Amino acid sequence: MSDQTEHMLPDIISKALVLPVVRVDRHTFLTKLFPRATEVELMSILKDGPQAVYTLEQLTKVARRVVMHDTEKTSAISFAAGLPSNIAIAAGTGTADLVQYYGFALRMAQKVAYIYGQENLFTEEGTLSEDGERDVMIYLGVMLGVASANSALMFISKGLSNTLSKKFMATAVTRTTWYPLLKKIAGYIGVSVTKKSTSAVISKSLPVIGGFVSGGLTLITFRPMGNRLIKTFETTLTATPDQIKQAQNVILEDIKKSSNE
To answer: How far apart are the first and last CA of the chain?
Structure first.
């Protein structure tokens, strides 16, 4: 990861990104996800994305099933992590639980992104690519409800393929272009981490109840995060040129506001 992105990311997110469980191999995931696809269909899925074979409605049904499965799995793990009743132990395990929570959120984000036709975020060496660093932040922004992240997702998913957007990107260094938005998303992540840190320590100070609180909070928050990402990808796949242009304007406005601060 770049130094600039690492500085924007809260420490807990940087730690989550290096967990082995976080990386999802696009080829393996899509192959297992669509076992009934013919050899020709699978080749098309891997090359152009599942949207080349399946309808938007079908993709959304699959994506929601994946989100539900990941939510249940993460909630069960969070329940187990919420069991310690010693407050001294809780302070230490609370941080580990949060790293794990965001690790699973990033893992779920990759799955949803791949279902809607996005490329691999990680290189063959297992590290995030430069575009992957940007996209991870944008996915998290969408999941946490950062409005401008929705426009950014639309732009990177569809806008970069048209001539107007390529010209726009050529006018500025990529990192400089995206920095204002990524900085904003990092702020939201920081607030979210602070809130969850407090909840984690409090829940762990309770005996078995702590497990129910921890697992329940994860169940309540995790699924909406995934569904926000699904909704934004749905909008992105059906975006018109005017909507893409509007998304570009949102990004430009963020850059303008940042330069005036």
So the answer is: 27
